[in-house]
Every structure is written in structure tokens, then in C-alpha cells.
């Protein structure tokens, strides 16, 4: 019996590339990967799947030579492993191109794009199709609790993919989603982000319009009502029907009426026709909008809307999306991926609606490339207003003055040391408080450190 072909993935602990590793293994390839930043939940997923993980980038990671190297978009020239791939003449490809050629090209692709809510909406859509018996494939930039994995092939014709606008690879500067060729495309929202690769919003809109150009005339575009940046993008040319979503609007195709302030219960209408009510575990107006997008996409794939509403009630959430990690001595500890001010504000407002007047302590790491460049610095202080206390970590490589950006906000303190932040949380947190850690990285393991410190404080 011949040895299965060996694929080696550079940047394998990224949420996209980690999912790619799982898909490649399910296709029968022998998979290994390397990464500089190894932390849960992706490292845990890879280990549970038996995928060989090498920490650090070294030329010897390519011995013996793999049949193909899949290059993550975080890789750049000068990286030791990238240089070895080029010098040895090893075959290589970008992750999005590999995904299209080996998984997507023969499937009904449902792609979820947008600045915010991609992971949640993708997970919701995959779950609706699963709960309704469609056995979809999916690749999500997180780990949906209903599945326990960020990716799978599935046996049905449908494949749901989180469609990121970030660039494809060091040798392909198009947005990832241009490769996916969806029949159903969700455009959740659009605002300025990824300042390390996009000079302005117009440049991002151009990439979104490239995606719009790839959706066939018998496909479907789903977009919120009254998102100016998306409206401008669609006005550049649209050859596909568009369905609109909105809260409390009779003018949109899909509309939701909040039945509880925290978004835990809502009613859904389709072009004015009531479909039913949803009571679920999620919170926040933004998640109700995510649900509407998922309902519209699932309906396009053939799911009866009333049946899809039932599936929402069984959705269990996503790791690192307002995930309750522990409760210690009456203190609730949450982990959340929010890093853009808009997402930070929406997450805190959702938590406030759920917990009422209980104290909220927000602990934030401005880790994303955009935040490190200071593009959204002026909006950061305002986004934290909902929290009673906010602790901001100031990493060494921050290119702007965090103190002046947040101004004289009396609920914010700035720290240069993660252990000092843990001590502050341990001293201040009282029974009934809610502590939410917000970062798109590992945040120095602060979640576990804080939990241990609270357990030990007696």
C-alpha cells in the first residue's frame, strides 16, 4: 500500500490554516505543520486530531521533503521555512487556492464575509444545515461548540466557509475570499480594518466587489439594510439578487423583533410574514443580525425557515466568543475574541444586557495588527464605556500612546505586565462580578492565571 501524500502547512495554528489541516487529513493526506504562536483552542484541536505540530519555523521542519507546502498568509519573505521552500524548489500553494481546488470547486459554497460576525454567522449557518439533515462541510475561524471542530468535509453538497478579506499569501495579495466562488454569499457588514494591508476603506470595498463579481446570477447575496459601505460596494455593480436583513423593520426581506433586551429571545418575519420566535443561549443585537443572515442563507440552500428557527434554539455558541470559562467564588470569567472597537462595544453591551447592574471588568489586549498601528486608538476608550472597570495591556511593540488615546476615562487603567493585571483582578473581583478577557491571541495565558489566582486567594 502506497504512503499517503504528505502536506506540510506553514502557520498551522491560525484559525483558517488549522481548519485546512483537518480537511486535508480527512481527505487522506498525511499532515504536519509549523507555527510560531501555539495556543488553544487551535493547538488543542490539532493535537486531538493527531496532526504533527512543530513549534518555530526552521528549514529542518521540511525534512524529509513534503509533497506539497501550504503557505499561510502570516508568512513572509525572510521566514526561515519560507526561504527553505523557495531555495529547495518545493511545490507550494496558498491556503485559499488549495481549499478551492481540493474541496470547494464541486460544492455549493455558502461564504460568510464581513468585518464582524463572520465566525458566529458561519457557525450558525453550518449548524442550521446540520440540524436539518444536510450534513454540510464547513471551515470556521473558530470552534463551534455543536461540532467540537473548526472544519469537516461533510457528505452533503453544501460547504459553508468563513470568507476572510485578509490577503491570501506573500505571493498573492488578493483577499482570501476571491478564491471561493460562492453561490450564496453573506456580506455581514463593512468598516475599516486590517490597516496593515489596506490603506483605506475604499481599498477594502474594492476587494468585496471582487467577491460580488464571482457570485452567479442564480445565486444570492445577503446584506444588512442601511450599511453605507456595503451599499456603496453593491452600487459598483451587482449581477445577483440581494436579500436584506434588519432589526425592527418591515421594509427588509428578513426582520427580527427583539422580545428581550439582551437578544436572548426574538421573533422573525420574512417579507412581513411572521415565521416564529427563537429563544436561544446567545446574547446581543449583533448576534440576532447574525442569525438573520444565517437564516436567509440556509433558506437559499433549501431549508424551510420555520425549521431553521428550531435549529437556532439548539445552537451552543463558539469557543472564545463570550465563552464562560469558569466561575470561581461567584466571579464569572469569560474569554472573547473581540479586538476591533466595534466588536468590543457590541460584546460588552450584550453582556451588560444579560447581567443587568452586575459589575463588569473588561481586560483587553490590543493585539491585532490594526490595533497595534493605532488606527482605532481614538475609538478604544469609548468602546469600553459599558464596563465598570477596564484594564488595558500595553504590549512593548505598540506604535502609539495608549494613555492619550483613552484620555481621561476614569474606568480604565493601563498595565505593562500581565501578572500585575492578574493581581488586580484577584484583588478587585467580588462575588457577582463578570470578568471578560478580550484578545485575538493567547494573551499570555491570562485566563488560566486569573482563574488559578482566584481559586488560591482563599
Measured between the Cα atoms of the first and last residue, the distance is 60 Å
**Looking across the biggest beta sheet, what order are the strands in?**
8-7-9-6-12-13-14-15-16-17
What is the strand content?
15-25%
Please tell me how large the radius of gyration is: 22 Å
| Name of the top-level CATH class of the largest domain | Alpha Beta
Q: Tell me the number of strands.
A: 23
Main sheet properties = 10 strands, mixed
| Structural class by helix and strand composition | alpha/beta
Q: How many separate domains make up the residues? A: 3
State the fourth-level CATH superfamily of the largest domain: Mur-like, catalytic domain
Looking at the overall shape, the CATH architecture of the largest domain is 3-Layer(aba) Sandwich
Give the CA-based shape.
globular
CATH structural fold name of the largest domain = UDP-N-acetylmuramoyl-L-alanine:D-glutamate ligase
Figure out the total of helices: 15
Unreliable residue stretches: none
Average pLDDT, rounded to a whole number, is: 90
- Helix share bin: 25-40%
Q: Helices, strands, pairings?
A:
Layout: E1 6-10, H1 15-26, E2 30-35, H2 42-48, E3 52-55, E4 68-71, H3 80-88, E5 92-94, H4 95-104, E6 108-113, H5 118-131, E7 137-139, E8 151-152, E9 158-162, E10 167-169, E11 172-175, E12 184-187, H6 201-214, E13 220-224, H7 228-235, E14 242-247, E15 254-258, E16 265-270, E17 273-279, H8 285-300, H9 305-312, E18 323-328, E19 331-336, H10 341-355, E20 360-364, H11 369-372, H12 377-383, E21 389-393, H13 402-406, E22 412-415, H14 418-428, E23 434-438, H15 446-456
Parallel strand pairs: 1-2, 1-4, 2-3, 4-5, 6-9, 6-12, 7-9, 12-13, 13-14, 14-15, 19-23, 20-21, 20-23, 21-22
Antiparallel strand pairs: 7-8, 10-11, 15-16, 16-17, 18-19
Helix pairs in contact: 1-2, 5-8, 5-9, 6-7, 8-9, 10-12, 14-15
